[in-house]
Amino acid sequence: MKRKGILLAGGTGSRLWPITLGTSKQLLPIYDKPMVYYPLSVLMLAGIREIAIITTPDDQPQFQRLLGDGGQWGVSFTWVIQERPEGLAQAYLLTRDFLDGAPSAMVLGDNIFFGHGLPEVLTRADAQASGGTVFGYHVADPERYGVAAFDADGRVTMIVEKPKVPPSSFAITGLYFLDGRAPDLAAKVRPSERGELEIVDLLEAYRAEGSLQVERMGRGFAWLDTGTPGSLLDAGNFVRTLQDRQGMQVGSPDEIAFRQGWIDRDGLAARTRVFGKSSYGTQLASVLRE
Description:
Keywords: Magnesium, Metal-binding, Nucleotidyltransferase, Transferase
Largest sheet: 7 strands, mixed
Shape: globular
Protein name: Glucose-1-phosphate thymidylyltransferase
CATH class of the largest domain: Alpha Beta
Function: Catalyzes the formation of dTDP-glucose, from dTTP and glucose 1-phosphate, as well as its pyrophosphorolysis.
CATH superfamily of the largest domain: Spore Coat Polysaccharide Biosynthesis Protein SpsA, Chain A
Number of helices: 11
Radius of gyration: 18 Å
Number of strands: 13
Domain Nucleotidyl transferase: 4-239
CATH topology of the largest domain: Spore Coat Polysaccharide Biosynthesis Protein SpsA, Chain A
GO molecular function, one term: glucose-1-phosphate thymidylyltransferase activity
Distance between the termini: 35 Å
């Protein structure tokens, strides 16, 4: 059964207030593209073409206006409402019918991933027929994140949320490849002290049975969480630097769809005309000229 995608773009974005009082965090710009383009691109790089997008009731029309039905990229979107944000593991309950027993890859709508070899890393995770794969990223301040602990053989022994004394420097990123049991296991998760269904508790169910893999992302990768004003600015500057230096887009669903063979040259040309003389449209035109 082919893996399906979940893009979690709900929540209130309260760490960015007052910026997000009038719009969804995931619709804010990261340099020249809306934030949601970047995690969407990760799912597309993983070869996933059926994607559920979880939004708040108020924000859903804006996302639909921006993204359409996915047909312009050769993918399909299913729209799911999150009435109240009740933890990341809630996403698997909301998408139970959509998944219908299929394995999934869930990405958080405010996470950006970049690095040479990223498609190969995603392919390895997708090839995991059972259990789960998450990604560890070395950070300077692990106490701010869910952190993985490892034994002498490199196997994950626990994942601790915001530990005062971190067992390692590897934070768990917002990208989760889980098998078809995820909704059933999520249904067994009990709310935490803050009243949320914690993703750490869901991952612990996989770890306890020995079926959770932690893929460590090395120095050649970048993982950016854009949940604060400072990190939002940093992410925009990061993307701008890469694109201006290399002359290539980061996080372009149009280019990825073309290179995956999901749209042809006529399809890409039509998308290029949509964006006209914008920097995004100019870059797509350069892809067509290759």
